[in-house]
Amino acid sequence: MSQVGKLGFVDSKLGAPTSGQQTTRILFNTIENPGTASTLTFFRNFQGLTNGQTNLTQNKLDSSESMVIKTIWLAYFQTSGLMERFGGANAQTVSIIVGNQTVVKNLPIHFNQGVNGQAFDRLHENAGYDVDRVAIATALNQTRQPIEIRLLTDIVIPPQVSFEVRVDSQNIAYGTGAVVCALSGYGKIFSAGNSF
């Protein structure tokens, strides 16, 4: 079943509107000053975040919006804006919780980082490590790539259902910078009418 078909199927089963404007959808959330942490939970706290730090105000989509997640993107930035390795080379897992179900459970992401590592998505072979094509590391001239994982299955976030992304590890020192999680995929947004 295609992602468009799966989203329509889930929406119809839940009684959600099946009409609406189809769109490419990216949801992102930032945790400022994470310090040393064993668990990072994204899409839970939105208080005090600006439009550049998140594009949501709650961990639910509106009643007429839904989304299929195709990609998880994780990045860590120093206070200077320079991108660093997300969690270093430490063992980490990512989980996605939709409603009361864990739909992605403990997916290891540390294999996605490494000088000779192979990324899950086969795109960013050395995600998180230095990229040789850039000589000077500045916030505008990044030398590292974020972790980007393409999911093989279509994960649906239905309307009005809470969701979160959790990264688990062993006391990683993220410091005073910021960690960012973005979910990208296909979605439906509110459509005001047939003339939209």
Descriptive report:
There is one protein chain. Helices cover 6% and strands 43% of the residues. It has 196 residues and is mainly beta. It has one domain (3-189). Strands 1, 3, 4, 7 and 9 form a 5-stranded antiparallel β-sheet that branches.
Characteristics of this structure?
196 residues, mainly beta, five-stranded antiparallel sheet, four-stranded antiparallel sheet, 9 strands, globular
Helical content class: under 10%
Envelope shape: globular
Tally of extended strands?
Answer: 9
Chain-averaged pLDDT: 79
Distance between the termini: 27 Å
What is the domain tally? 1
Indicate the radius of gyration in whole angstroms.
17 Å
Determine the structural class based on helices, strands and strand pairing: mainly beta
Q: DSSP helix count?
A: 1
Along the chain, the helix and strand elements come as HEEEEEEEEE
Question: In percent, how much strand structure appears in the residues?
Answer: 35-45%
Low-confidence stretches: 115-119
Q: What oligomeric arrangement do these chains adopt? A: single chain
For the biggest sheet, the summary is:
5 strands, antiparallel
